[in-house]
Amino acid sequence: MNWEAVLAPYKQVVEELKVKLRGMRSQYELESSHSPIEFVTGRVKPIQSIIEKAELRNISFDDIESEIQDIAGVRVVCQFVEDIYTIINMLQTRNDFTIIEEKDYITNKKASGYRSYHMIIEYPVATIHGQKMVLAEIQIRTLAMNFWATNEHSLNYKYEGRLPGEVRSRLERAAEAAFKLDEEMSKIRNEIHEAQRLFRRK
Ligand code: 0O2
Ligand code: 0O2
């Protein structure tokens, strides 16, 4: 398999989506006092992770592009939970890609404690051989959800997915604490916005 050639369109999609989403952030900053986007990151899934995921799920090489939906992945990180829904609504009105699937792990957290909103999109990318449809995953989460997910991801990597009971239960508690933090911050959101407006004026 010529991985470089297979992954090239995905690289293109990640770059395009980062530019578009970061552009939205700049636009919000110009036109309103609060941007629902804190920052945007993106990555093409490393080849090793693609192979491991395919093996784990019995996906044949020919089906990788249709079965693994997060080869291209971008992440939108927000300050408040409310911002996530602003982003979702905005993405739903765009016509430069099609939303294939939405997974709301905010209302329905995963067993691990993971929270985030995922959108699987079909994105048309222009290649020298014509247009190609590529699947991409947009993860939308708060700073608190991102903090938790990043740490949990590191621990899972360290323990190869077999977390000791003690660590697992601490992570569960941390997930609830992060959820509480988001809830509390939401309650004083207007006050925070006002403070940030004042600060910007100075
Ligand atoms: P901005 O819009 O000025 O913040 P690249 O295209 O190379 O810049 P890449 O390869 O995706 O992007 O880099 P990475 O490391 O994923 O980070 C992308 C952007 O997210 C960078 O901003 C980082 O500063 C920002 N970022 C990553 N983690 C955090 C975080 O924990 N907190 C904050 N506030 N920002 C973070 P840029 O590129 O300077 O763009
Ligand atoms: P990476 O690149 O290491 O992050 P499904 O078939 O829908 O049940 P699938 O296709 O894995 O499962 O999709 P899902 O569950 O929506 O998750 C895709 C991505 O969400 C993962 O990618 C993670 O980035 C993130 N994610 C999902 N669950 C968790 C979790 O419990 N903890 C953390 N930290 N992240 C999670 P990968 O494949 O793990 O790759």
Q: Would you kindly provide a written description of the structure presented here, covering whatever features stand out?
A:
By secondary structure, the protein is an alpha+beta fold. It has one domain (about 5-200): 2-Layer Sandwich (Beta Polymerase, domain 2). It is built from seven helices and five strands. The protein has helices spanning about 5-30, 45-55, 65, 80-95, 145-160, 165-185, 190-200, and strands at about 40-45, 70-80, 100-105, 115-125, 130-140. It has a five-stranded mixed β-sheet. The model has no long low-confidence stretch (mean pLDDT about 95). Bound molecules: ligand 0O2 (2 copies). One ligand 0O2 binds next to α1 and β1.
Summarize the model shown.
This protein is of the alpha+beta class and 202 residues long. The chain contains seven helices and five strands. It binds ligand 0O2 (2 copies).
Secondary structure elements and their pairing?
Blueprint: H1 3-31, E1 39-44, H2 47-56, H3 64-67, E2 72-78, H4 81-93, E3 98-104, E4 117-127, E5 130-142, H5 143-158, H6 165-187, H7 189-201
Parallel strand pairs: 2-5
Antiparallel strand pairs: 1-2, 3-4, 4-5
Helix pairs in contact: 5-6
The structure holds ligand 0O2 (2 copies).
Keywords:
alpha+beta; Beta Polymerase, domain 2; five-stranded mixed β-sheet; binds ligand 0O2
Q: Could you give the order of the helices and strands?
A: HEHHEHEEEHHH
pLDDT averaged residue by residue:
95
Q: Give the uncertain stretches in residue-range form.
A: none
SS-based structural class? alpha+beta
Q: Strand percentage, roughly? A: 15-25%
Radius of gyration: 19 Å
The major sheet is characterized as:
5 strands, mixed
Which bin fits the share of residues in helices? 40-55%
What form results from the Cα inertia axes? flat
Let me know the CATH homologous superfamily. Answer: Beta Polymerase, domain 2
Number of helices: 7
**CATH topology title:** Beta Polymerase, domain 2
What is the correct CATH architecture?
A: 2-Layer Sandwich
